[in-house]
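Bug: token stream looks shifted between consecutive jobs. Job 1:
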Amino acid sequence: MRRDHERDQCRSAGVYPVGGVPRGLYEAVLLDRDGTLVEDVPYNGDPEKVRPVPGAREALDRLRAAGLRLAVVTNQSGLARGCFTAHDLRRVNARVEELLGPFDNWQICPHAEPDRCACRKPAPGMVHAAARALGTTASRCVLVGDIGADMAAAAAAGAAAVMVPTPATRDAEVAAAPTVAADLPDAVDTILARMRLVEGPRTARRPGRGTVLVVRSDAAGDVLVTGPGIRAVAAGADRVVLLCGPRGRAAADLLPGVDEIIECPLPWIDAPAPPVDPHDMRALTERLAAVRADEAVVFTSFHQSPLPLALLLRLAGVPRISAISDDYPGALLDTRHRVPVGVPEPERALSLAAAAGYPLPPDDEPGLRLRTDRLPPVPAAAGPPGYVVLHPGSSVETRACPVELATRVVRVLSAAGHRVVVTGGPDERELTARVAAAGGTDLGGRTGLDELAAVIARAGALVVGNTGPAHLAAALGVPVVSLFAPTVPFGQWGPYRVPTVRLGDAAAPCRDTRATTCPVPGHPCLSAVEPGRVLEALRLLGVAA
């Protein structure tokens, strides 16, 4: 099948977004005012007290020079409290612009917390409003702020976020932030560096570059977050062959841009690792040689090595190989790419594709996607659309929702009027039956990955730990209540570019351990979550009962 014809088919099947032509990783930067742009003076109505933070004007001018639109999103409850007048607020904001240059839009919440408005951060209202005013979407914005409410508002809208802590920022807020910068200039450095990373070298595109072998082993979630990088390769290749492992095969079947799939476990990637069998390795090398690939792009996670497979690819005669490698590759790689720590996994994949000469084309968004035309019908038991899916299990113990918490969440959501559908794999039937007995519909063991995707696609939201279904929801644009165990960084592995509320103790002792078995008795990072917070998260995401 010709690549241009496949792209047309994908668009007609709902794979690629409809609308304007996006450009770059971000289109706009939204900034909190007090504590981020200017020194925080509580309830300030005096323009003479406006003091920019160090380096603010130069940092903002760099964003403007990069073609990014700028907006301010600021809570100003002092207006509702009578601490200053609307005229005072206009004078203060005019002084901010006088010192820092013009902003393309201002979004101001004048309400106090008891008003429970839709605009006061952590609600996402101002983020959505600023994005609309700037002619973009929240997923194409990055918000810079100094407190947890800023980060939560960005996440609930599906925007990226960078925290610049001040002495008033609580440690728990810093731990939960997806990205932390030392100051505003450092935050701007981070934003611009990530944009350059996914753009790749400034060289002319060479469409129709023959057959490209792309590789992403490991589990379904790993394959899903690599999807944007694979789509980028597909946009510039005549044919794409994907090598994946058994645990990622079902996800690979749903990725746009893939013409053929080779399924094979890799002993240096898969866990539990199969033994290294010389016969199997010879067979794999012969199979790779039969692809007659013009080049290969080996995608890995941040802790994996591409070099064992690169050796087999060399033995298979692949003339050009690109991969991310911290280790010296010798003659195994033609493009040895480096990525800073903390980059989200989808952007990590996009950056490798770009380094190999395959930047994402301007008619595609840098988010996760599925071939929705390949999804089967939803089981009748799920009922009409609008339910909340709760997926309590995970293939990794530390990332699963504790069964007691899951049961209480179902009880609370059901009492509030939500229809709850509980999902799980064939080996989780006992778990899902116990959880669903609290007031949900049990679909445990009745959905493969494609059926699960179909169920999630019709949901109002998904409540889930850090596991594959979270990435299915991100690919389908379904909001996520993320019960995220901090064993891996949220900024790298959290749901990507989809409205999200993160719950759980981000500073728990298991933080960044990558543990697969909970190192702390009782799973405290998640077991302390109150079910009422899940209900409140759904309200924040606009999911009605």
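Job 2, same session, no restart:
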Amino acid sequence: MTETPHPLYDRHADTLNRALAAITERGYWSAYPESPSPRVYGENAAAEGKAAFEAYLNQDFPLDQPGDGGTVATEVSPFGVELNVRYPHATPDQLVAAASAALPAWRDAGPQARVGVCLEILDRLHKHVFELANAVQFTSGQAFVMAFQAGGTHALDRALEAIAYAYAEMTRHPGTAGWEKAAGKGDPLRMSKTFHVVPRGVALVIGCNTFPTWNSYPGLFASLVTGNPVVVKPHPRAVLPLAITVRYARQVLAEAGFDPNLVQLAPEATGEKLASTLALHPAVKIVDFTGSTEYGDWLETNARQAAVYTEKAGLNTVVIDSTDDFAGMCRNLGFTLSLYSGQMCTTSQNLLIPRGGIETDQGHKSFDEVAAGIAAAIGKLTADPARGVEFTGAIVNDGVLERLEEVTKVGEPVLESRSVEHPSFPDAVVRTPTIVKLAATDTATYSREWFGPISFAIATDSTAHSLRILRETVGEKGALTAGVYSTDEAVLDAAEAAAIEVGVHLSCNLTGGVFVNQSAAFSDFHGSGANPAANSALTDGAYVANRFRIVQSRRHV
């Protein structure tokens, strides 16, 4: 089949080619500027984006898609701002039927047309990035700059990365080929062969509360660009960012001559369990999920008709052996533990420190001095409420508050969490991080995930013991990140060997402006698929290649 060129492919070909180069070079590149400065986006962009966000509040969301006539409104802002956005509701069968009807024309359009349309969607979203950032901020509890970056520009980069990997995989084979084989004294056997990229079917994206766009965009665009219509099921407390995404995606699809039902929003009523119903629907062939281990395991076990991609929970761990920059280490870890109040799936939880202390550029530091140094760095970051809330943001749900209360009953506090009044949002729920001292024998405590601003300083027998705990806990429960601090190359090598063994990404001696819980699109992989914390990686070939199949036809010439 000869693919008909699409004008949107030509419009965005330069961006695609640069992205294709970036995924092979693995250096720094970003298509979307991460600074919300007026010098970058213009003097009026921030105000216009905020006004667009506010226009959604207390209104019916403007989304024309199949539905049952009802609406749902389930969001509660961690900042205490009334949202009350009402979204159109639909039944699973309505969503799946509309998606299935949209599939054939999208499939037949071919990879280039689909890539062009998807890149145009990203461009449209980028034009509305301040609107998107406000929606992420007030539903997730992230501070604005983080919401702009993680929820806006970095999410777009991850989407573009997924599109680039998908295009590379879809075009790995030629569309047509001539085949000729000698046949003795007679004429050779000749055949013409055509290879079709065939999508699996309807895709389901199940969004999360903390990073509604960053965690959803890779799967959404990986499925869409490979020919699969996508049903987007947002978290009930973070619907608006994905509703905005769906709105602009549908606009672009319609403008390009395709059925807008290729992308639909599936908000759920309280207690409806829409995600589970959709995930088990026979027509749903792909499921993407970010969230709890319990539900991710359920999807992997039960959604057997679908290819299931999960990013779940894990025990992110840092091994502290020694350092030639004690102050820098403490500042770096302090920022890591404070950022978004530890409500990142990549935030470190377990800090493994020899009970005999470590060697540093400031001389020997005891176990207590190391823990106190990290605690002091957090204290400095969060001392001024006006400054501190720009790091911590707000607490996303009551489960985090319950864990903060529960952790007061274990171990010995090195740093206690405290409530902070947000200077701009008096009803915001803000808590500073806590660090609790544990013994290496307290495995029942630190071998479970405590999502939120909770970390443990764990006294081990030695660095070798620390590495053994890393292997055991991460091997059993998984992790998305690991870190090590050491001036000894042998220790760094041993830590890298341990990380490879349990399939976790490792960061060494971070003391500056790079943090263990942050990853850069086109260079860093997020998750590995090699331990229980995730069964896939954002983003690699394996993440996209199973979303379609190659089906061939052949004819005699």
